[in-house]
Write a structure and sequence with these properties.
Elements: E1 3-6, E2 12-15, H1 18-32, H2 40-46
Antiparallel strand pairs: 1-2
Amino acid sequence: MKRNITCPCGEHITGQDEDDLVAKTQQHLKENHPGHDYSRDEILFMAY
């Protein structure tokens, strides 16, 4: 089941499943927002 999240910067991230979404979101944060890190639980809480 696809999961989506919208970063506070407005970037939409789509994952094929929860693990994919968490990995993509953490990669996006690492590349675009150094110092901002969310745990798996925080990411999934914000996912839809």
